[in-house]
Amino acid sequence: MDILVHAAEWFVGLFQAGATVFISWMGSIVPLVLMLLIAMNSLIQLIGEDKINRFAGKAAHNPVSRYMLLPFVGAFMLANPMVHSLGRFLPERYKPSYFASAAQFCHTSNGVFPHINPAELFIWLGIAQGVTTLGLSTGPLAIRYLLVGLVMNFVAGWVTDFTTAYVSKQQGVVLSAEPHVEG
């Protein structure tokens, strides 16, 4: 009987722990993301969706601007996870690649811009601790991490372009080459 009681307590405890985490998110990350969504949508309305569509459309024609410029500006201004929302302005065929590039940029920029992905700052801090222990500055490492990250994020985006095109052709799916944003 004790085994059943402990199993039931463990089972309920699992959900209590989940509820505790959920409530902590309701006081921290959920309002932050909500405010970022409101800010981004307000900015889009002030600038105008047509202008943003044209900018993203122009950026979409060039893989360097598509996988280096947009993720950099988006991550710096909007942070993770809002950087991914800029992908809505790209044509369907570039969205998987943009996501790949933007997702990686949120990690490789943490040393210089910790606000971009504070949830994973502990990774950077762990690496930085080793460098600091050696008596070295973390600044050069952070810049190198950012620059190598920009190049690798571009490569990831571009490789995903080819992968998406291959799978689309294989599956007989035609992805739009024009941006289409529904309000």
TrEMBL record:
<dbReference type="Pfam" id="PF03608">
    <property type="entry name" value="EII-GUT"/>
</dbReference>
<dbReference type="GO" id="GO:0009401">
    <property type="term" value="P:phosphoenolpyruvate-dependent sugar phosphotransferase system"/>
</dbReference>
<feature type="transmembrane region" description="Helical">
    <location>
        <begin position="142"/>
        <end position="160"/>
    </location>
</feature>
<protein>
    <submittedName>
        <fullName>PTS glucitol/sorbitol transporter subunit IIC</fullName>
    </submittedName>
</protein>
<dbReference type="InterPro" id="IPR004699">
    <property type="entry name" value="PTS_IID_sorb"/>
</dbReference>
<feature type="transmembrane region" description="Helical">
    <location>
        <begin position="64"/>
        <end position="83"/>
    </location>
</feature>
<keyword id="KW-0812">Transmembrane</keyword>
<feature type="transmembrane region" description="Helical">
    <location>
        <begin position="22"/>
        <end position="44"/>
    </location>
</feature>
<keyword id="KW-0472">Membrane</keyword>
<keyword id="KW-1133">Transmembrane helix</keyword>
<dbReference type="GO" id="GO:0016020">
    <property type="term" value="C:membrane"/>
</dbReference>
